[in-house]
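Write out this protein's structure.
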Amino acid sequence: MDDLDPRVGMIADSGELVARLASAIAFEQDAKLQANLRSFAKLSNADPMMVRLPDSEAWLRIDPGQELTVNRAPIDGIAQVRFSEAVDSDWSLRMNLVGAMARTKALQQARQLLTPLFDAALIPTREQIRTLLKWSPALDRVAYRYCARTTSLLDRLRRPILSNLGRYSSTQDARLVGYWHYAHAMGHITLLASTPGSRPWLVDMADSFVWVNWTPSFPLLRERTLWLAALAARSAIAFGEPVVEKYLSTLALATHPMKSFDAIFGLLAIALDQDRIADAVVAELVKQRSILARPNFPNAAYTDLMLKTAIRTLRESGAAQREFVTSLNIVEDWRQCGLVGLLSAAALRSDPANVLPSGRYLGLTALPMIVALPAEAYYPRETTAHSKASITPGEISAIFERTWRPGTPAVDSRSVH
């Protein structure tokens, strides 16, 4: 790997995620470390305290006899200990943390939680995702940086795969599997930066540049599997109402049907999550339809059907959800979501930009169900529930071709291609 290879930074980021999570676990679980901090801050055993984690923006509220809570800011009226500053005054606290990590086996716990996000042979469980989401304030910025690097890596890996599509070899198989694994690791890790509490800094970031080939949902949605589309929806929802205008501008300027689809997808996800703006978003989509569906506009036929699907889905989300679960062969997978989550064989293979028999786009019609479920419910309760989600290099090649090779025949002429 050369110095410009994104994997160099990704390795560092994954190590930082493990280190941050391990230190958080130690603070949570080790009573001796908590007692040392109370002694440093001259607090009694009955006093609550706020502890800022090292090298992190997260604060832990530690109350004797109560479950620890993770916060993004200190709470007024509660004693505060900024661990990194405390160490400057008392170096023994650093050694106390090292001892706590050893006593709690915090590094092993952190690796056990995070490894399924990176290792394609493993599937995260619902409980693992729930635990990781609790620690999002300590992990989200590093997680997002990892995902940004992965987007760059996928752009680099895509070229040799496209050059060799249709040429079967062990090298090409390895390229396809590697690409698939990186894309899905990015999907899992995106969730860690897709909580409501991340919104302020996410919006600041989104406002810091002009959206050209990026939206919060595009890096995942463009890979065109229903599973990654579900995670793309969570990313759009995390940015929320403050980016609605940017999504509308992206839609108005889109020159490719997939960019139109992404903009409409992001708007629909946000509106389904925030009922109070749903009517306003519907009105904007109706307005855009009157403009973009004119025959002289690029991709007018695609855009018209996308907007028609989105408007109907917002107005009748319950009907859209029923249509979704009854129109597809994946119905049984999704009916069992209480047991196995959304990470099903069908969701891994289905194209969100395909058109249902009813004439509506799959990914847009699926959004009411996707948005209604909490993020951890996308995952199985047990890892063993998901052996059928494995996929072959040949299947990955077919998905890659429909996604990235222009002119590939579509299931329906109205499907994006």
